Amino acid sequence: MLYNLTRPFAEQFILFNLFRYITFRSGAACFTALVVSFWLGPKVIRWLRRVQRHGQPIRLDGPERHLVEKKGTPTMGGVLILFALTIATLLWVDLRNAYIWPILFVTLGYGLLGAADDFLKLSRRNTRGVPGRLKLLVQTAIGLSASVWIMLVMPEPMATGLAVPVFKGVLLNLGLLFPVFAMLVMLGSSNAVNLTDGLDGLAIVPTIIVAMVFALIAYLVGNRIFAEYLQLISVPGAGELGVFCAALVGAGLGFLWFNAPPAKVFMGDTGSLALGGALGAVAVCTKHEIVLMITGGLFVLETVSVIIQVFWFKRTGRRVFLMAPLHHHFEKKGWAESTIVIRFWIISVILALAGLATLKIR
Fold first, then answer.
1. Residue 243 to residue 249: CA distance in whole angstroms
2. What is d(CA 266, CA 273) in angstroms, rounded to the nearest whole number?
3. Secondary structure of the chain: what % helix, strand, coil (to 5)?
4. Domain that holds residue 321
5. How far apart are CA 76 and CA 152, in angstroms?
6. Which residue intervals of 260-296 are DSSP H helices?
7. Which residues of the chain carry a pLDDT beneath 70?
8. Positive or negative CA dihedral for 249, 252, 253, 254?
9. Is the pTM above the cut of 0.90?
10. How many domains is the chain partitioned into structurally?
């Protein structure tokens, strides 16, 4: 918004000229989201404690210590992330950009679905929220709508193309299958972050790391000179998504302040579904869907552990892991929560560096 308001006066006022630069607005968006989170955090937590009273329902079949250590902690802290993210994005992004609106549509749409899921869990005082099939149906509808939207605003041949990392200039034409593929990226990313959100700080830091990577990717593919130099698929206008990703980093850091062990608030499905969907949508817009699987490899590992556990149990009646997702397996083995979280953060950093390496290897 500020970019659109100051742009006509950029020639007369040197200060307004700063608003032309994506790098400046990205930094400002990150700082704005961080400040909003710090300011609203205590107020939101007090409100959540007042309306929830008993806090997030804890799984009875989970690690025993959760019933003691995490009992009474309020959930739905994702509303803090979404509010800070949306305010910072709308304030600093170019509102004429075609990619911002489907990204926000996915983020807020998945956030509302997560909020409904959290509300039902709280009202019923159990861990069953929105029925699984209904949740998948809504996620599919939102993701498919956003995919078609992105396809319509993106020029050909990128609109239906899948870029392959490492191989320069390779763009696989998926045709009418592209909206389905893009929807699966958003849906898969959303649920993967949701499965990872089980320990204090476990999901939000990898999300921040992946957002930082995609802030850089968005800036590079949106800049024709850098894209040509690195031999990336250039996506005109995608640079503005760097502002969105920077705002996500700021909102995530602000939330981490209150989610650091011992957590004062959990993000709940309100935050995890929205953040995962946002990362998936950004990956689709920047044509780096496969790179998302690398940089977000921790989320992939958590998801695969659940798939393996369910498949093998149904087939043999035995479990591969002591408990799924994977972080609960290590809890059952006696690892301290802080040990699991920090080591998973380290894995996220390594995978992020691997994802960044694909930008240069051609």
1. 10
2. 13
3. 70, 0, 25
4. 2-360
5. 34
6. 268-285, 289-295
7. 3, 8-11, 55-70, 126-127
8. positive
9. yes
10. 1
